[in-house]
Amino acid sequence: MPTDDSELETVYTDQEITDVATENSVWVAQTGLLEYTIHQYKNYVGSETNCVLTWKGRTNLAPSSSTVYLQIYNLDTLLWETVDSDNSSAVDTNFTLTAVIADLTDYKDVTGSMICRIYQFDTVSPSVSPSASPSISPSVSPSI
Question: Which ranges of 6-52 would DSSP assign to H, the alpha helix?
Fold first, then answer.
């Protein structure tokens, strides 16, 4: 699994970016075979000092069998930090991961962007990883 914020081997097409931009039950699938399935998102937060991360999605490998993680990349420590996870949802069931990031100082770059990812280890084959896009909202305002 990548330990830095490099681009992943599976890059979203323009249509897939559109598909995950809104909550509409349109999913972007990624097949895994005894490996990590990862969706990575770069989000612009501008001058905001805090935010709420919200990801809504589903997977055909139950989180109760293999935990799904929401992480944010710390640009100070150069490490991924787990901010939420799900190890109890059933297969093919929508679920939500959420985290309050009280201080964005260590997470956004000079352009005002931050990086989040959702991942799950595929313990059986084949599986389709979690999909959908996290929404990032400053403070407690509606998701962007």
Answer: 14-20
CA angle 98, 102, 105 (to 5 degrees): 115
What DSSP character marks residue 16? H
pTM for this entry: 0.80
**CATH node for 30-138:** 2.60.120.200
Distance CA 20, CA 23 (A): 7
The pLDDT of 38-54, averaged and rounded, is 89
* Every domain of the chain and the residues it spans: 30-138
Q: Which residues are bridge partners to 118 per DSSP?
A: 39, 70
Judged on CB neighbours under 10 Å (0-12, 13-18, 19+), 119 is buried
Tokens 């000079």 belong to residue = 110
